[in-house]
Amino acid sequence: MSHISETVSADHTAAPLANPPSSWQPLQQPVFRMLWIATVVSNIGSWMSDVGINWTMLSLSADPLAIALVQAASSLPMFLFALPSGVMADIVDRRRYLIFSQIWMFIAAAGLTLLSLFGLVTPMILLAATFLLSTGAAMSSPPFQAIVPDLVSKAELSPAIALNSLGINISRAIGPALGGLILSFAGPWMVFALNALSVLGVMWVLWRWKPAASVQRLPPEHFFSAVRAGLRYVHAAPVLRNVLIRTIAFFLFASAGWALLPLVARRELGLGPGGYGLMLACIGLGAICGAVLLPKLRARLNPDRLMVAASLLFAMTLLALAFVRHVWWLNAAEFFMGFAWIAVLSTLNVGAQRSAARWVKARALAVYLTVFFGAMTLGSAIWGQLASQFGISQSLMVATIGLVLASATALRWRLDQDPDLNLDLSGQTDASGLKIAHGRGPIMVSYEYAIDPATGYDFMVAIQEMRRVRRRGGAISWSVYEDVQQPGIFVETFVIGSWMEHLREADRHTMNDLKIQRRVHAFLADNAGPTVRYLVAPE
Fold it and tell me: What is the DSSP letter of 409?
């Protein structure tokens, strides 16, 4: 498993508990404990491999664009494959899919090891190997996030995800320094070989894990319909859309720090692999300290203020990277870079987690990953090209200014919107009792509401929220009409692709959807439910 899965396991929010479990309680679960240890080891191997790949590219090419393309090749697979992987994680056996992704990464790492050992690595081969390794990470990240609730109890979920974050940052602190040390004494091939071996522990734990069989009331979705359902959900989830916009605004500019850091270390400071690894270790240490202090920071700052503060701190570290050329002062700046990085990631992850219902969680988080790594890929290519044309310091200066300006997105797209959002499933199912072939469709569903005409305006304001509810559940279109001959009669209609899609829509109602529905039903004049009709396209 690769360290890039950090983006979906950095944090989680849950309702406060009377007696909350300790931060270490999930480790009492045997499978979670073994997988956590194996993942930490694997992530150490991934960070070691990153150092080896970046340093090998520095040895093969002095072009800043080539160096930045390493970051682009690492980010691009997540942009391309995270959503398909999230869909697969929602519709197939996650354990088998995870094992397949680990086999993929082992083969890619072992192949790079052999090519490096025999001196056959070229810049293009290195970029291709980086792409293949990251493709395996893109396959594994959404299902790894999705299986956490299967490994621990609901009360232990929040500390379990926090432990995953801690493990990732422990590996971030150890892996680069260890990788730089091994590079100095044995060369890149040894680093790549250890990364390949580190994957085997995760494969072994997954192979031994026997998850409880899940009961599905409805057959699994087909791939492309599942993709459409996931995208419809994202489009109709305001909090998640805000998270995605803020993700683009930050990472498009922050990617300059990761893309140009190897160049600063090698060309500006004249460091060897050990010194470069130490710089990355300082970032990891800063991230660990950030993870430890985040609960206290969240108690004082709301998500938007915390992210703005962290963004401005990260901008200052980019400024230091542009102009500071004293190794230890720059290492101190990299410590704060790691601190700011984990604070931003955690804040965005909280928003993505709390805005994704369980039935679509892997897909929603995969869209978040796609946007995150798309911004990283595009940004890395841009900053590498600017550095090649105008210089490293100038490129970092532009990125700094852009990051400061991007912080203003907090004024319009807020992360603290709907703080009481509850996306647990409500347990409602289709209550029509109709026996219709699953493939029949399209289906038009209508709800007729009889209300006091004097409350018509307030009713129309309230029912607009039902549009998002229906869209999130899979509705293709939605409308509401008023009967001009009978004042107070309103008809809500929406179209679903098939009867099976209607059954899924009913099965996906969340507690938040139920709250919106009750708010609308409160306008009914006789306190009875609305009149429901189902219209099916003729065969």
Answer: G
Whole-model pTM: value is: 0.76
Residue 471's pLDDT is what? 86
Asked if 177 and 277 touch (Cβ cutoff 8 Å), the reply is: yes
Say how far apart CA 127 and CA 124 lie, in whole Å: 5
Quick one: pLDDT at residue 13? 39
pLDDT of res. 18: 46
What secondary structure letter does DSSP report for 26? G
> Any idea which residue has 């430890």 for tokens?
292
Give dist(CA 137, CA 169) in Å, integer: 17
Under 8 Å between Cβ of 26 and 164: no
Which of 178-182, 221-225, 268-272 tops mean pLDDT?
178-182
For residue 364, what is the enclosing H or E element?
helix 361-390
Return left, alpha or beta for 153; rule: phi > 0 is left, psi -120 to 50 is alpha, else beta: beta
Q: How far is 322 from 391, CA to CA, in rounded Å?
A: 10
> Which of 362, 421, 378 is CA-nearest to residue 242?
421
Higher pLDDT, 176 or 317: 317
What is the C-alpha separation between 203 and 263, in angstroms, rounded?
35
Closest CA to 469 of 412, 419, 521, 525: 521
Kindly state the average pLDDT of the residues 437-442. 86
Q: Count of residues for the chain?
A: 539
Confidence of residue 84 (pLDDT cuts 50, 70, 90): confident
**Cis before 262? omega within 30:** no
- Find, among 357, 249, 265, 277, the residue nearest to 47 by Cα: 277
Neighbouring C-alpha atoms within 13 Å toward the C-beta of 535: 7
Binning pLDDT at 50, 70 and 90, where does residue 216 land? low
- How does DSSP assign 342-354, residue by residue? HHHHHHHHHHHHH
> C-alpha angle with apex 238: 233 to 241, nearest 5 degrees?
80
Q: List b or e across 312-351, with b for residues whose CB sees 16 or more CB atoms inside 10 angstroms.
A: ebbbbbbbbbbebeeeeebbbbbbbbbbbbbbbbbbbbbb
pLDDT for 321 beyond 70: yes
The distance of Cα 49 from the centroid of its chain, to the nearest Å, equals: 22
- Give the C-alpha separation, 330 to 313, whole Å: 14
Q: What is the pLDDT of residue 1?
A: 43
Q: How far apart are CA 324 and CA 291, in angstroms?
A: 26
Inter-residue contact 382 to 398 (CB < 8 Å): no
At 285, the pLDDT band (50, 70, 90 cuts) reads confident
Q: What's the per-residue H, E or C state across 419-474?
A: CCCCCCECCCCCCCCCCCCCCCCCEEEEEEEEECHHHHHHHHHHHHHHHHHHHHHC
C-alpha of 258 from chain center = 18
- 442 preceded by cis ω (within 30°)? yes
The continuous run of DSSP H or E covering 89 comes out as: helix 64-91
